[in-house]
Every structure is written in C-alpha cells, then in structure tokens.
Design goal:
Helix content: 40-55%
Largest sheet: 7 strands, mixed
Radius of gyration: 41 Å
Number of helices: 21
Structural class: alpha+beta
Length: about 725
C-alpha cells in the first residue's frame, strides 16, 4: 500500500534531484548571461555549455539505470525467484544491493522457511497417517494373498476398484497359457466377463434390494451365485455380494437399499467340471453296462432257486450263464476304471433359485426393447405357485425361454405369451404358452434342437442342451379344447436353502480395511458426461511411440508402443504396455540414431496388425495422454483401415497443456518441461520411458491446471485448442 506521508529517504532523494537539476539550470543560465573578459560571443558560450550539459545528462542517465537495476529489475528477479521457491521448497531468494530489497528478501526467506517448516510438520503427520494406512493395507494384502479364491471389487459401472493376485493370474491367462492385460484398476470387468451375465446378477441384487426395502427397513441385501466363462476360455463359479452406500444402510422405511458396487469371489471350476464330467461318464457307463448282465444273472439265479430238481445239464448251463455274466460285469468295471480320465460330456455348475424369481426375470427379459422397430412382446404370468425352489443355470434357462418366445413373435406374429409355474409331484412344471395351435410337432422339435441365435453372439447351445444341463426335460404340446399351445419344461425341485449368506461390505467403519482406490465408487458413467468429469477422477492411458521416421503420411511406421496407466491421480507403474513392432518399411539412419532400435532387434517381433488391437484393449475406457500426441495418433489412424482398430477416446496433449500453463517459455520440449516440473528423465527415446516421464509431468500439471480454473476434461480440451501449437498437422 502507498504510505500516507513520504519517508525521510524519499524526501531526501526528491530534494537531491531537485537541487541537482536546479544547479544544472543555474550553471547554464550563468554561462549564457555572463560575459567573458576576452569578449567571447554568445555562440562561444553555448559551445562551452555543451560539455556541461552532456556530463549532466550522462550523470542523470547513469542514475536512472542504476535505480532501474537496484529496484525495478531486482524486483522482477525476486518475483521469479519467489515463484521458483514456491514450486521447489529447497530454493531461497538471493541477496540484493538495495537495503530495502535486501530486507524484503530476508522477510521472504523467513516466510519460506516457516512455510517449509509447516509443510514438514504436515508431511510428518501425513507420513504417520500413511504408515498406519500402509499397515492396514499390508494386512489386507496379506489376507488377499493367502486367499485361494479370486476376489474382484467393482462399482456399478463394472470398473475394477480392487483385485488380488489370484484374480490377476486367473483372469489374465488364456486357454493356451498366453498372457493378456485385461484386468487392472479402473478398467472394466466386462473386458473379462460376460456383460449380460453380470448385468443379470446385478439386476437380481437390485430386485432383492427393492423387495427388502419395501418389507423391512434396514434388511441386509443378500448375494447371488452364477457360473460364467471368461474371455480367456475358463469356467468360473462366481459369488456376487453387494457393496452398500452409507445412505443405503441408513435408509428410511420403504426405501430400497442403495447398492454402489459389488464384490465377486471367483472359483475356477474348469478342472472341477471336467472331473465331474468324468465321474458322471463312469456312473453312466456302469449303469448302462451292468443292467444287462445283472438281469441275466438274476434270471439264472431265479431258475436255479425255483427248480432245484432240474437236470444237471440244465443246471450247468445256468451256472455258465452266471459265470459269463459275472465276467462281463468285471470287464465292465475295468472298462469304466480305464475310461475315468476320458472327457465324454460337459457338466454345468447349477445354482439354487426361487422359481418365482425365475419367472419374474424371464418376463422382464422377454419384454426388453428390440431393434429394427419391432414392438416388445407382451408377457403375463399366471398360476405361479410360491415356495418352489429349482437348481438350475438361471441365466441359460432365461435365455432359452426368451429365445422361444421371441421366435414365436418373429415367425408367427404372436402378440402375447404367458408363463406359469406349478408343482407336479416331485417336479416343477414351467409352461410357456400362447393362443393358437397352428405349430406342428416337427417345427417345434426343430426349434428345440437348433442352436440359439442370441443377438451379437454365436451360441452353439440349443434349448434342449440347456434343459438337459438343468437335469430337466422339455417338449411341445397342444390343447385343442382350450385352443392353445405351449412348451412345457419339467425341472427337479430342491429344498429351499436355509441360512442364506448375506455378507455386506463396508457395513460399519472398521469392519474391513479401507482401500484408497475405493474413491472410484463415486464415479459413474451413467450419471455424468465424460467431458464434465473432474480431471482428477478420470482414468488415463499415457502412451508414446517410436517410429521409423518423422513422416507418417510418407509411409513411416510404428516400431514400438509404450504406455502406462493413471487412475485416481496415481501412476500405476506395474500396469504397463511395452511392445516392439516389426515394420514393413526401412528404418531411417536418423531414427536409429535417436532410439537405437535396429532391424535386427525388431526381427521376430509381431506386426502392427497384432499389436494395435492389444494396445486398443489396454487403453479401453480411458483418456489418452501423450506428448505431441497428434504425431503418435496420426501413425495409428493411418493403420485403422488395415487393422480395423479405431481410437475414439478423448485425447490430452502435455505439449499443448504446457503452452497453456507457461505461455512465456521459449520451448515446450519434453526435457524442458520435465526440468521445469522437477521430473527426472530416465529411459529417454524409449516408448515406455517417455510414457512414464509424460505421466509424471501430467500429474504435476493437474494441480496447476486446477489453479487456472481448468478442472474438467472439457475445459482442458478447450484450453488446449486455443494454443497456437494445436494448429500443427501431420
């Protein structure tokens, strides 16, 4: 602020300047007016006055430059030093010649020292808190590592929040032992497991939540079990439990419990299923192979008992029958033992589910909207007997009934179908009926035997296969009196399970250790537009490439792709993509001098056709980040037609963001930005090394962008487009 009265020094400085100028003016006037004894002219006096004026002017200029150096330039230097010291706590403001600025510098250094001490105190407290969290995390890690089951925690959008090493091992191994990078923090579980099966299980949990909320406030939502296959060809039995929000746990009467995510506990039952298959085959072979010999032995024994006085020749003949059939039985047992290791047929792991729930889910599946402008098929439920429990593969059974209903609509224009479930002795009788008897038996049998065509998938299973896996039977039947037809499915009943497990995650504080990546529970693609999400909440794939040259439009190609992932503002160094690529063109000597990759090093590496789809899967559902990303993306875009891979993700460029943050800097090269941000540069001109450096720089930029008011993805993209560097094209 400006002082209300001038200080003593300012008065003295002003008085000195005034006296100096007054003396110069007085000397000039005296020289001009005073005559000389020798009688010099006025011009002579002016000539003698010029040196005086020049000396006075030079002195004034020197004084001005000196004042500028002592106060103006020094003040600007102090501002830059303060900015650097604020970014790097080990820096301090230097010494200054001007006493006023020197005092200001001392005060600034004292404030910086106090700030550093306060930060050290906060850091020490943070380290203590972090140590406690790390201890809890270590306990959780030890517990997770000892589990023989795979555990994956996801939010409702299917994004992975937590997984253990067992899950990483089982879900990232293909049928031939090859490794895939499909599981990772912030990634979608639907890249590994079938979206339809998971969605069906979530719908069951939400349905149970709504039912629990309508009956008993605070009732704990249960869990569900199902069987699914993975993208890598393995068979898993899954136990899904809900993750409840705090608001959901304290909901009022009549409200549904709020589910924010789910926990999957997975068992690889591929081997178990194969073992059960072999066991069933042995049992089946014994039943079929022993029925005949046992009947013969029984008949021969009855004849010997009923006719004890028969002739010895006849008795010997019956004894030979018994001996031969006993030998056949022994042979059958030996054959069954030898065939124990043969895989004769597949067995499906079944789940226990309420019959009424099956009907409700089936009705919902049939009524779903269909493409092509086709109206939804109307469904009515009738004669639903309560208390019936079935042991079936509920998802496969739902798909089979839906397939039959929609085929009726497509081929016979059936406007409505009806579902009923009743008890028939020790079996459950499930009918899918409709008005009209115009379908013949041959057509119905072909429908049951044909592979089901599920939209978007090629299913090899038929309806009969599904029902047989559920240990049931299905047939077509007509009732001419009531003028209706139906597919009747009979399934074995099972007892209602008692003491159903109803686990909860995060029911109360301290029940389970917290994991900091659980902040992703708050993220939902269904309730937010991606552009409006805060930058700190997005998942990123930071990538870089090495190429044969610098002219993508002239035929240069990618020879290396490296990438890492950033989730929840954390760099996940263990989740990396690093792959060399064999090019189809010659490497330029200039590019070899930069990255050091030669044709010999690239020999035997996969082509871009194989690498680019893998990289596309690695960066799925993330925002791409690169340094001069337009250059790298141009190479990938030129391969889209050849590989069929399209990169449609949002892109952020640290080159453009740097020009937004520091518009007055002379260069925005990666090394220069890293030096300004205090990021060490390692592995330069390797794709993964540059990607890691870019990721560190990007994380340093996020708080600086927030201070500028650039907080969302939309704002970051708009700010980047305003940069003059955004006009560069490749």
């Amino acid at each position: 602020m400006r002082p209300t009265q001038p200080t003593r020094k300012r008065l003295l400085a002003g008085l000195a300047v005034f006296l100096f100028m007054l003396a110069v003016v007085a000397c000039a006037v005296a020289l001009l007016l005073a005559g000389e004894p020798t009688g010099g002219t006025f011009a002579d006096r002016v000539v003698k006055l010029i040196p005086v004026v020049l000396v006075a002017s030079g002195t004034a200029c020197w004084v001005l430059f000196r004042l500028d150096a002592l106060y103006v330039q020094a003040t600007l230097r102090m501002a830059e030093q303060l900015a650097a010291a604020l970014a790097h706590s080990d820096l301090r403001v230097g010494r200054y010649q001007a006493p006023e600025l020197e005092q200001l510098a001392k005060t600034a250094n004292q404030l910086l020292a106090q700030r550093e001490a306060d930060r050290d105190d906060v850091a020490e407290r943070f380290r203590a808190t972090q140590a406690s969290l790390e201890e809890e995390r270590s306990r959780l890690s030890a517990l997770m590592a000892d589990l023989s089951q795979s555990v994956v925690v996801c939010n409702l959008d299917g994004r992975v929040l937590l997984y253990n090493q067992r899950a990483k091992q089982e879900l990232s191994t293909g049928p031939k032992g090859e490794k895939t990078e499909l599981l990772g923090l912030g990634r979608s579980i639907y890249a590994v497991l079938d979206r339809a099966v998971i969605g069906y299980a979530i719908a069951r949990l939400q349905q149970a939540s709504a039912a629990a909320g309508s009956r008993h406030a605070g009732r704990v939502v249960g869990s569900t079990d199902f069987v699914t296959g993975t993208a890598t060809g393995r068979l898993l039995r899954a136990h899904m439990s809900p993750v409840l929000s705090d608001a959901g746990r304290r909901h009022s009467e009549g409200e549904a419990t709020s589910i924010t995510g789910f926990v999957l506990v997975l068992d690889d039952v591929t081997t178990t299923s194969e073992r059960h298959t072999r066991r069933d085959a042995v049992i089946q072979s014994l039943i079929e192979g022993c029925r005949g010999p046992l009947g013969s032995v029984r008949a021969a024994a009855e004849m010997l008992c009923d006719f004890p006085d028969m002739l010895s020749e006849e008795k010997d003949r019956f004894m030979r029958v018994i001996r031969d059939e006993a030998t056949a039985l022994s042979s059958q047992f030996e054959k069954a033992a030898r065939a124990f290791s043969s895989d004769l047929r597949e067995r499906w792991v079944l789940e226990e589910i309420s019959g009424a729930e099956i009907l409700l889910a089936t009705a919902g599946g049939i009524q779903e909207k269909r493409g092509g402008g086709r109206p939804p098929l109307a469904v009515k439920t009738e004669h639903v007997e309560k208390g019936l429990w079935l042991r079936v593969d509920s998802f496969a059974l739902l798909q089979a009934l839906r397939y039959l209903a929609l085929r009726l609509q497509d081929e016979y224009r059936i406007p409505e179908v009806r579902l009923s479930l009743t008890r028939s002795g020790h079996l459950a009788q499930l009918d899918l009926s409709w008005p009209g008897t115009f379908m013949n038996n041959e057509t119905a049998m072909s429908w049951l035997q044909d592979p089901m065509n599920v939209p978007g998938k090629s299913a090899s299973l038929s309806v009969t296969d599904v029902i047989e896996r559920c240990n049931g039977d299905i047939w077509f039947q007509r009732e001419r009196v009531s003028h209706r037809a139906f597919f009747r499915t009979v399934l074995p009943l099972t007892a209602a399970p008692g003491n159903l497990p109803m686990p909860m995650i995060a029911a109360t504080a301290g029940e389970r250790p917290e994991f900091y990546d659980f902040d992703l529970f708050d993220w939902s693609a269904g309730s937010h537009e991606l552009d409006d999400l805060p930058l700190s909440e997005l998942a990123y794939t930071v990538f870089d490439t090495e190429t044969t040259g610098l002219q993508p439009s002239q035929g240069d190609e990618i020879i290396q792709i490296g990438a890492t992932r950033v989730v929840n503002s954390r760099l996940l160094r263990h989740e990396c993509f690093d792959q060399l690529v064999k090019p189809q063109v010659r490497l330029s000597p200039g590019s070899i001098a930069v990255h050091g990759l030669t044709r010999e090093l690239l020999a035997g590496q996969p082509s871009i056709d194989a690498v680019l789809p893998r990289f596309h899967a690695f960066c799925a559902d993330t925002v791409l980040v690169g340094h001069n990303a337009a250059f790298d993306l141009r190479f990938m875009q030129l391969q889209e037609k050849r590989t069929g891979v399209h990169f449609e993700q949002p892109v952020l460029d640290t080159l453009l963001l740097s020009s937004v943050l520091h518009p007055n800097q002379a260069t925005h090269q990666l090394e220069a930005i890293a030096e300004r941000m205090g990021v060490p540069v390692m592995g330069r001109h390797t794709a993964l090394g540059d990607a890691l450096v870019t990721a560190e720089i990007f994380l340093k930029m996020l708080p600086l962008l927030a201070e500028m008011g650039v907080k969302t993805l939309r704002q970051a993209r708009e700010a980047s487009q305003r940069s003059y560097l955004a006009r560069v094209r490749y």
